[in-house]
Amino acid sequence: MVDLLQQVICDRQLDTTAGDDYGRSETSSTHADATRRLTGLPRRAASRLLRAGRVLLTGRDETPSPIWHAETLWEPVKGGTQLDWSRVGDAPHVLELGRAPDVEELRLIQLLGLNAHTGDRPVITQHPELISYRPLVLTHLAQALKAKVLVEIGTARGLQSVFWARSLTARGAAEGRVVTCDIVSHDQPVYRTPISGDRVWTRAELWESIATGKRIRFVHGDSRALAIALMEDADGGMTFDLVYVDGEHTEEAVMRDYANLLPFLTDSSVLIFDDCDPRFPGVERAVNRIVQQRDTTIELIRFAPAAYGVAVVGSPMPLRRLLHRRNTDGLEGTPKARPLRWRHARRELVSQRD
């Protein structure tokens, strides 16, 4: 799998148009900003990063492993993109926006991330070394916006909520809050992780070792249950700064989530929609409608060669600028911490386990 991934990357020379052409009809390719190559990231260096990242995230090398990966490198897509590209302001690749995770972040990604879905065996997502950058980038976005009230619809294992809670604690934002909801209860044993084998976990068990998990308010139910819970207590007058929608992936469900959250949104609220890509045309159509209603633009974060995409709606400026700004105009950009080298991180993780 590693060799195949490397060959795809080298053949395409990390040309991010590979992700743009994926599942798109010729009539919808009028987005010049989305066809640029990665900048400042040489092909060979990126290839090494992806390979080392896969080894570190899975805790495995190229020897036979009990970890099951998705069987195909490219997931099937029916039809082309449904996204209104006239509303897309920019479509940066995730490697242009984020830094490598530190050791503690890697531990959380191994425990809560990798998109291992429920079922009779743990299955790891395609390209985990790229997908794992998403919680870091969205955390940097929260920092840049100085968001105080952060909401996640569709908790799952809680990776994004935990990253946000850690960020609020690190920033000393005592009044900051993270609120999340899921139709799977906190004590329902349904989650598997590729790292821990066949054990089935509850979300509460996964959060036991995470101190900042206590800072997260969990509501059992959908976005309507979350809205009712907030309206019935002292939080009824709160407004949301940053919302991450990752619930049911149909147009009707996404629009329903948006309608339930609308009383808590302001003109400056920023919305994030997970899986906004051709695999889920309903999500793309819903994003089109919401963007039109709010009269704003889309910043589409791409993860090529993975088909995965994340749409950011209502950002005050392009993500390339927002996430790399220094402390000017009241915005705090991505920390200038030196990126962690994967081999150093792996050595430290191994020493901690021993």
Q: Brief overview, please?
A:
By secondary structure, the chain is α/β, with parallel strands linked by helices.
CATH topology: Rossmann fold
Q: Bin the helical content.
A: 25-40%
Report the major sheet. Answer: 8 strands, mixed
How many strands? Answer: 10
Order of helices and strands: HHHEEHEHHEHEHEHEHEHEEHH
Describe the fold and architecture.
This protein is of the alpha/beta class and 354 residues long. It has a single domain (2-353), classed as 3-Layer(aba) Sandwich (Rossmann fold). 36% of the residues lie in helices and 12% in strands. The protein has 13 helices and 10 strands. Strands 2-9-10-8-7-4-5-6 form an 8-stranded mixed beta sheet, sandwiched between helices. The protein has a two-stranded parallel ribbon with strand order 1-3.
Secondary-structure map:
Layout (H helix, E strand, L loop, with lengths): L1 H11 L4 H5 L21 H16 L9 E2 L18 E3 L12 H10 L10 E2 L3 H4 L2 H12 L3 E5 L5 H13 L5 E6 L20 H5 L8 E5 L2 H10 L9 E4 L5 H11 L8 E4 L7 H14 L3 E5 L6 E5 L5 H4 L19 H12 L1
Parallel strand pairs: 1-3, 2-9, 4-5, 4-7, 5-6, 7-8
Antiparallel strand pairs: 8-10, 9-10
Key traits:
single chain, 354 residues, alpha/beta, Rossmann fold, eight-stranded mixed beta sheet, two-stranded parallel sheet, 13 helices, 10 strands, globular, disordered N terminus
